[in-house]
Each structure stands twice: as C-alpha cells, then as structure tokens.
Amino acid sequence: MAENINRVTITGNLTADPDLRRIPSGTAVCELRVAVNGRQKDQSGQWVDKPNYFNVTVWGAQGENCENYLSKGRPVAVDGRLDWREWDAKDGSGKRQAVSIVADTVQFLGSRDGSAQSGGGNQGGGNGGGFTPQSDVPADTGDFTPAGGGGGGGTPADDDIPF
Q1: pLDDT above 60: residue 114
Q2: If residue 105 lies in a helix (H) or strand (E), which one and from where to where?
Q3: CA dist 47 to 10, 11, 13, 37, Å?
Q4: Are 45 and 79 in contact (CB under 8 A)?
Q5: pLDDT at position 19, please?
C-alpha cells in the first residue's frame, strides 16, 4: 500500500512584513503571507498573471530569522507541508476552514535591501548579471559540536587528515 505524501514547495514574494509572536512556552512562531503568480488565458485568449496567496507558518529560530531578515516584497522559497484546520466562526455562522503551509525550510532570495536579482544563467564565463546565491543570515551552528581529532580532543594534525 502506498504511503501518503504531504509536501509542497513554492517560490514567491512576501505580501506583508513577517509577524512574529511567541506561544506560552516561549517558542517563536512567525506568520508569512506569500504571493505566487501563475499564468492562465483570459476570455480573449491572452495570457495573464493570476496571483495565488499562501499563509506560511515558520517555527523556532528559523521563524526568528524570518522576522529579522525579511520584509514585504522580498522573494522567498518555502518547502514544507500542508496543514488543514477547521473552527467555528466567532459570529456563530458556522464552520470555517483553511489550508496553510507549515514550513520546514525558508530560503531567502534576492538581496537584503529588497531588490530581487534577476535569475539569469552563467553567460560567457562571468556572472552575466544573473543571481549569485548568498545568504545574509548567519548560520545556526547550535546543534553541532566541534569534531574532535584522533583522541587528542583538539584540532587534528595535518597528517591525521585522510586527503
């Protein structure tokens, strides 16, 4: 029997600044709203952009980084899973439903000043004015411990490195 797969990847632009809050335990949760354009033909047969809007939830340190480094208009790539919710409307008019994305990873695209760089290929051996991958977010190395070398507990000597 086949397993179910719940995976989604989108690339788009933020429609608002990130909204960071904390749950009672102190864990950060950041809400993003991402617009993704699709193309479709209108009644006259012309191709037009059709925006799709997605709510994205980002938890923990990654959510804090989103709040610190992202702003409205910034392009992002989001990989995560879909989450369906149902609740009773506050005005008593019945049930409400929503599907949102719970992010596993959020990749910051474009430059930090908000100007997105165009995604061109490598032309003529140079950059060609295309996108140069870089991150303006410091790496979170809190989950990693320094590797010990050869029983000495410090940096391995050059002759201990196998290449």
Answers
A1: no
A2: strand 95-108
A3: 21, 20, 21, 12
A4: no
A5: 97
- The structural architecture, per CATH, of the domain 1-113 is Beta Barrel (2.40)
d(CA 85, CA 98): 5
Per-residue confidence (pLDDT) for residue 145, from 0 to 100? 58
Residue 40 has pLDDT above 80, yes or no: yes
In the chain, where are the structural domains located? 1-113
Q: Round to whole Å and give the CA distance between 30 and 148.
A: 36
Tokens standing for residue 89: 């409307």
Amino acid at 90: K
**What integer pLDDT is reported at residue 96 of this predicted model?**
92
Residue 127 and residue 132: Cα distance in Å, rounded? 8
DSSP state of 60: H
Q: Which two tokens stand for residue 127?
A: 């950059």
- Cα(first)–Cα(last) distance of the chain, in Å? 45
Q: What percent of the chain has pLDDT over 70?
A: 67
Q: Read off the DSSP letter of residue 38.
A: E
For the chain, give the percent of residues with pLDDT over 90. 60
